Amino acid sequence: MLKGQHQVHGGFDGKLNWFYFDEVTGGVYYGWKYIDYQDKTCYYGPDGAMYKGWCVVGNRRYYFDETTGAQH
Q1: Torsion angle of the four alpha carbons 41, 32, 24, 8, in this order, in degrees rounded to the nearest 10
Q2: Are 12 and 19 in contact (CB under 8 A)?
Q3: DSSP string of 7-23?
Q4: Exposed site from 18, 20, 25, 33, fewest CB < 10 Å?
Q5: Which helix (H) or strand (E) holds 63?
Q6: Strand pairing partners for 56?
Q7: CA angle in degrees (0–180, nearest 5) for 55-60-63
Q8: Which Pfam families does this UniProt record tie to the protein (predicted)?
Q9: Is the pLDDT of residue 12 over 80?
Q10: What is the pLDDT of residue 8?
Q11: pLDDT digits (tens, 9 = 90+) for 24-52
C-alpha cells in the first residue's frame, strides 16, 4: 500500500502525476494538503492528481509551481 506523496501514472489525463495517499488508509487524497517535510501547500484535484500552473479551486484562481506543485 502506498502512503504519502508518490509520482504514478493516473489522473484524468493518464499521465505521470503526483498523488498523495492517506497515511492510515492508503486511499487517494484530494483537496488542500500541507507537506511538512517539503514546507509546501499544494492542491490535489478530484482525480487525486496534484495541480500545477494556473488553476481554479472553488471560485478562486491560484498559481501552483510547474515543477513542485507548491502554491504561490
Answers
A1: -80
A2: no
A3: EEE-STT-SEEEEEE-T
A4: 25
A5: strand 60-64
A6: 61
A7: 40
A8: Choline_bind_3
A9: no
A10: 87
A11: 999 999 999 999 999 999 999 999 999 99
CA–CA–CA angle 4, 11, 20 (5° rounding):
10
Would you state the cell numbers that stand for residue 49, as one nine-digit string?
492528481
* Contact (CB, 8 A) for 43 and 55: yes
48: nearest Cα among 62, 60, 34, 31 = 31
Residue 16 binned pLDDT confidence (cut-offs 50, 70, 90): confident
User: What is the total residue count of the chain?
Assistant: 72
Give the cell for residue 67.
515543477
